[in-house]
Write a structure and sequence with these properties.
CATH topology of one domain: Alpha-Beta Plaits
CATH superfamily of one domain: Transposase IS200-like
Radius of gyration: 17 Å
Number of helices: 5
Shape: globular
Largest sheet: 4 strands, antiparallel
Oligomer: single chain
CATH class of one domain: Alpha Beta
Length: 181
């Protein structure tokens, strides 16, 4: 069995894909968005990071984080975000998918896939491709026809900062970029 080794780089910039358990389409509900925002804020208060870009889709999210100069432990941050989200979401009447007894025996819940996918951004060009991919993703999945029509995306902040024109994304800005969904 192969063993995946994460690339921990203090002060690094990382692109992540995080997926719901069984691809449940829940992340864009008002309850899930609120719980996720609160979980991220809570974790950032004790373990800072900068969320440079993010998009929420019904069954997954993509984000780019910049880690503090002296810290690279994004795994503990994701673990705590998922834990905090799960606790609050279920307490507020959110529901979870059924799990096999083997996963329940390990204390797992039916909200998140066990792992997440991570890519270390190597340079400014790589970072730009990752951010473009994040913002283009709702169009890729057929959720909207225009990037600006997806409400749960940092694209709108990037337009305000004049990083993109509001009509950006008429065609795929990163063809061939192979990112796990």
């Amino acid at each position: 069995m192969s063993r995946y080794v994460r690339n921990y780089v203090p002060g690094g910039t990382f692109f992540f894909t995080v997926v719901t358990y069984a691809r449940r389409p829940m992340l864009t509900t008002e309850l899930a968005r609120t719980c996720l925002r609160e979980a991220i804020e809570k974790v950032r208060a004790s373990r800072p990071f900068q969320a440079l870009a993010i998009v929420l889709l019904p069954d997954h999210l993509h984000t780019v984080w910049v880690m503090p100069e002296d810290d690279a432990d994004f795994s503990i941050r994701w673990k705590r975000i998922k834990e905090c989200f799960t606790k609050v979401y279920l307490a507020r009447a959110g529901t979870e998918a059924g799990l096999p007894s083997s996963r329940r025996a390990r204390g797992e819940r039916g909200l998140w896939q066990r792992r997440f996918w991570e890519h270390t951004c190597r340079n400014e060009q790589d970072l730009k491709r990752c951010v473009d991919y994040i913002h283009w993703n709702p169009v890729k999945h057929g959720l909207v026809e225009r990037v600006r029509d997806h409400p749960w995306s940092s694209f709108h902040r990037f337009v305000e900062m004049e990083e993109y024109p509001s009509d950006w994304g008429g065609e795929n800005p990163c063809p061939g970029l192979d990112v796990p969904e």
